[in-house]
Every structure is written in structure tokens, then in C-alpha cells.
Q: What sequence folds into this?
């Protein structure tokens, strides 16, 4: 019964938390997009013959890796390299995987998959941003845990 009461009392209207969640999500999106778009661009421009699904899975994996690297580099001045890496690894994988999946599903639905065009990139970024944002807000508000 206490879970229901907690859920009813949860505040989704905190502007400060939305700003922090948006900032954290933006940094994560930047890191994920570097690896994701870089992988898709490689296969698109080299015309290396791989199945679309394999390219998209590799893009997701590379996006997770580059996000962890970027977070480590950002946090290293505050925490030192070892602690920064531990913090980056401890980021919410749920958030990152949902972000990557949303970006790649958007690409697949609009282009057939593993294709970067001038018009699909903003849509992929939008989908990658809004998908994990409510979860990131909840994590900060309910658990006191953010990416940074």
C-alpha cells in the first residue's frame, strides 16, 4: 500500500529536476550519438556490405561505449580518472539503451535503417532525447541519482 501512496505523491512538476534531467540526458545523447552516427556513417560511406540489423546493433554498442567515454572525460576533472570511469560505468544502462533503441528505431522506420540523411538526424536525436527523459527525471527525483 505504501508504494501506491508514494506513486500518488510523486511530483512530476519540479522545474529544477526537469532542467537537471534534460542536461544529463543531453550529455548522454551527445555521447551516444557520436558512436551511433559514426558507425552508421562508416557503413553508409564505405558501402561495406553488412546486414542492416547488424549495423544497427553495432551502432547501439558503439553509442554506449562513446557515451561512457564522454562521461568519463567530463567527470575526470571533478572525480579523478578512476572514479570518473566507475561513475560513467554506473550510469543508467536503462536510460542509454532506451535512448539508443529509440534513435535506431526512428532511423529504421523512416529510412529503412542504417541511413543518415539531413532530415532524419534531428528526428533521431529528438527521439533519443525524449525517450529516456521521464526515466531520468524519475531517477533524480525518486532515487536522488543522476548521471553527473
A:
Amino acid at each position: 500500500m505504501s508504494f501506491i501512496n508514494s506513486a500518488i505523491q510523486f511530483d512530476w512538476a519540479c522545474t529544477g529536476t526537469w532542467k537537471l534531467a534534460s542536461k544529463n540526458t543531453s550529455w548522454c545523447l551527445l555521447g551516444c550519438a557520436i558512436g551511433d552516427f559514426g558507425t552508421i556513417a562508416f557503413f553508409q560511406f564505405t558501402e561495406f556490405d553488412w546486414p542492416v540489423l547488424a549495423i544497427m546493433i553495432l551502432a547501439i554498442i558503439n553509442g554506449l561505449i562513446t557515451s561512457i567515454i564522454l562521461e568519463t572525460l567530463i567527470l575526470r576533472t571533478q572525480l579523478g580518472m578512476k572514479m570518473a570511469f566507475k561513475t560513467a560505468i554506473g550510469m543508467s544502462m536503462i536510460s542509454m539503451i532506451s535512448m539508443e533503441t529509440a534513435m535506431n528505431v526512428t532511423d529504421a522506420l523512416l529510412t529503412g535503417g542504417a541511413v543518415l540523411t539531413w532530415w532524419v538526424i534531428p528526428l533521431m536525436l529528438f527521439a533519443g532525447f525524449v525517450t529516456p527523459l521521464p526515466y531520468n527525471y524519475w531517477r533524480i527525483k525518486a532515487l536522488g541519482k543522476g548521471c553527473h
